[in-house]
Amino acid sequence: MTEWERLMPVEDAEPARWLASALEEPRGRGDRASHAAAVIPRGFEAYARLFHPAWLAGEERELTWAEAAARAGTRPHARMQWYAVSRAGDSDVGWRGLVPPEPGRMPEWMLEALAGLLERHTRTPGECFFAVWDGWGLPVFATLRGRTAHVRLRDRGYYLLRGDVRAAAERVSPPSPQHANIWWPEDRAWCVATGVDMMWTYVAGSETCVAEILADGRLEAWRASPDDRADAGGDEVNAPERTC
Prior knowledge:
Elements: E1 8-9, H1 17-22, E2 46-51, E3 54-56, E4 61-63, H2 65-72, H3 82-86, E5 98-99, H4 108-118, E6 128-133, H5 141-144, E7 150-153, E8 156-163, E9 182-185, E10 191-193, E11 200-205, H6 207-215, E12 221-224
Antiparallel strand pairs: 1-8, 2-11, 2-12, 3-4, 3-5, 6-8, 6-9, 7-8, 9-10, 10-11
């Protein structure tokens, strides 16, 4: 297989079957919009949206979306979209060395922080499941085929692995920085989902769990809803003005 410290193969895809019915069909509402419910399952008490940081190459540091908004003269909010809030394509903002957040990947330090927090909000921290999108083209996939379970969730396929909650920060195929896209504990007390084309991560859980996430100063997080738009058109606050 591969030399993992915490991740292990899964024989049966049954632990992930609940997601197939809990996730909404992508762009299935007839308005061509994508909603959070296609990425994170319904049925939880509360939801949060965690924003992955950008990178300022000139200053060699991470940049939060709120910092980008302050620089661009826009307003940060729960449904903001990167290119609208940062105005990264506008020459008058004067960005230099700005590297946008990488879609589909949460930084390892964020994964470690989130896993440590979520560990306190499940009865089964030692038994969690991790779904990895099969479209990443990682070298390890050649050895995973036929050796671990594979599940179809709406429009994408995933390899299923298991491990303790801290395995969330383990790279699926080193040295690639890719981690699991969806992960949850056996008792389904919460669920974490990073869409493969999204620069943020959704977390669903109890009100107490989400409140702790929102209060953690290490994480840039806003309260979310399964009905939030999750596409580029969702940022109505910072959308450019239309001219006739």
